[in-house]
Amino acid sequence: MAEKLLEIRKLTVGFVTDKGLVKATDEISLSIGQGQTVCLVGESGSGKSVTSLAVMRLIDYAGGVIADGSIQYHGQDLTVKSQEEMRHIRGNRIAMIFQDPMSSLNPVFTVGEQIAESLRLHQDMSGDKAWNAAVDMLRMVGIPAPEIRAKQYPHELSGGMCQRVVIAIALACKPELLIADEPTTALDVTVQAQILDLLRKLQSELGMSILLITHDMGVAAEMADRVAVMYAGAIVEEGPVEEIFSHPSHPYTIGLLQSIPGFEGERGRELYTIQGTIPPIGQLPTGCRFNPRCPHAMDICREKEPFDFLVGEDHRAACWLFEDRPVALVDGRCGRDEVKRA
């Protein structure tokens, strides 16, 4: 098993409102090994982006707070570090690709200057050296004529090129961990395939770990070593990618997979949809948070939140359908708070 680079332990992130703290994530636990790709999947509103912002400690600037839990990076708890300390980690050791490349880039600076800025800030490079390194980064991410493109502004580039520029900025300082928040959402399928190939190639060359956030199960199948399925602020299933796709256990995971066109090999069948919508944060149902949409909901599902049960080797699912299975342990402890569920 790969050595743990990042370990999230029972992380609760919320937003303070006039009604108190509203939880966006609820005691989630997740680990990423050296050189490993972990995919965090789920519908919009599940808490995936909030999790990534918490790891980067950018949630502080978005009005959010880390209410409980820890984020261990090389044994250091990022939740207790000051923003000044985090500035030496962000961009340098942990980098992030944000969802929309056009809104991530500054329209008044050339793309070369935006890459060079990261190198000057974190690597203490001089002006010319940083600029040349920025051009090299554009070449590395597959942008043709990088010397010319480096002098252009974001609006002069296509969406696919802007995404490559954002990747170049994120990778400029050769981080150990790359957080990619739906890096292919706004791209057509051809460019999406190119970006995913690029990430795999760069991961192999740099030996970095990737936390890939997506709502596309096809992307997860193609990229992941492990998959964590998130719903309404909680991880409801987690395990090796082969286990998740060959033996999906939680009804939500099964629904996501059945929603993929042609997943079961039946052409012409009506596309499966999960009934209902994800509940707003602060308005979660009693018991299992998926029970109003679940076709297998039982009385206990409406009364008590389920434990994380062990449903396979290194494979856990939070569902009362597996009540006869052992409770899964995360770092030697129950995957969730037993007292809360009693």
Task: Map the helices and strands.
Blueprint: E1 4-17, E2 20-33, E3 37-41, H1 48-56, E4 64-73, E5 76-77, H2 83-87, E6 94-97, H3 101-104, H4 111-123, H5 127-140, H6 146-149, H7 159-171, E7 177-181, H8 189-206, E8 209-214, H9 217-223, E9 226-231, E10 234-240, H10 241-246, H11 251-258, E11 309-312, E12 315-317, E13 329-330, E14 333-334, H12 338-341
Helix pairs in contact: 4-5, 4-7, 5-7
Helix content: 25-40%
* Largest sheet composition: 8 strands, mixed
Radius of gyration: 21 Å
Instruction: Indicate the multimeric state.
Output: single chain
Strand order of the largest sheet: 6-7-8-3-9-10-12-11
* CATH T-level topology of the largest domain: Rossmann fold
- What's the level 1 CATH class of the largest domain? Alpha Beta
Tally of strands: 14
β-strand amount: 15-25%
Provide mean pLDDT, rounded: 89
Distance between the termini: 33 Å
Q: Which word captures the global form? A: globular
Number of discrete domains: 2
Number of helices: 12
Could you spell the SSE succession in H and E letters?
A: EEEHEEHEHHHHHEHEHEEHHEEEEH
**Alpha-beta classification:** alpha/beta
CATH architecture of the largest domain: 3-Layer(aba) Sandwich
3D architecture notes:
This is Nickel import system ATP-binding protein NikD. It comes from Fontibacillus phaseoli. One of its GO terms (cellular component) is plasma membrane. Pfam families: ABC_tran, oligo_HPY. The complex is composed of two ATP-binding proteins (NikD and NikE), two transmembrane proteins (NikB and NikC) and a solute-binding protein (NikA). With 342 residues, the chain is α/β, with parallel strands linked by helices. The protein has 2 domains: 4-229, Rossmann fold (3-Layer(aba) Sandwich); 251-341, no CATH class. Helix content is 31%, strand content 25%. The protein has 12 helices and 14 strands. The chain has an 8-stranded mixed sheet with strand order 6-7-8-3-9-10-12-11, with helices on both faces. Strand 1 and strand 2 form a beta hairpin. Helix 4 (111-123) runs parallel beside helix 7 (159-171). The longest helix is centred in the middle third of the chain and has 18 residues, at 189-206. The chain starts with a strand and ends with a helix. Mean pLDDT is 89; it is low at 337-342.
